[in-house]
Design goal:
This protein is an all-alpha fold and 162 residues long. It has two domains: 44 residues, no CATH class; 75 residues, no CATH class. It is 64% helix and 0% strand. The chain contains seven helices and no strands. Helix 1 packs antiparallel against helix 2 and helix 3 packs across helix 4. The two termini are 28 Å apart.
């Protein structure tokens, strides 16, 4: 498991050895973290969704869990989702000709627009004001959860507590 975190850190932050080192140490401290001794001070702020969860959200958008999908549709949906996840909306353009779907200039144009919109939203989300809003919201949720726990008379479940 640590190997995948290390690989991800190297691939994500390859422009700076200092940043890679910090990300690797953050992964290490997270792996040795316990409920009694949390070690989250080195975790990057706002990096809560791992890449598998992100890929899964793209797959579920193609093949929703709440509706039945046959095996063929799931195979196609996963293939297109992986292509889009790795290469953007235009990634599906490699798949469509293989299954006999014609590509038009409108399809290419729409894919480019979707990619630009996705990149713009990601850039906005990584700016300081957006990160600040996320942090404020996260703290408010934590305070609300703590207040609810206190109101109930303490936690109903503690890891290793039973």
């Amino acid at each position: 498991m640590l190997q995948s975190y290390y690989t991800s850190a190297v691939r994500t932050y390859n422009s700076s050895t200092e940043v890679v080192s910090k990300a690797i140490w953050a992964a290490f401290y997270l792996s040795v973290s316990t409920a009694d001794q949390p070690q989250h001070e080195n975790c990057p702020v706002g990096k809560t969704q791992n890449s598998n969860e992100s890929l899964h959200s793209v797959i579920w958008a193609k093949c929703p869990k709440h509706t039945f999908s046959g095996l063929q549709r799931i195979k196609i949906g996963v293939t297109v989702a992986v292509g889009e996840y790795n290469m953007g909306s235009l990634g599906s353009h490699f798949f469509f000709p293989a299954v006999g779907c014609a590509l038009t200039t409108a399809t290419t144009s729409l894919g480019q627009k979707r990619d630009k919109r996705r990149i713009y939203k990601a850039e906005i989300a990584h700016q300081a004001p957006a990160k600040k809003r996320i942090e404020v919201r996260k703290r408010a949720q934590q305070r609300a959860q703590q207040a609810a726990t206190r109101a109930e008379g303490g936690p109903s479940y503690v890891s290793g507590g039973f």
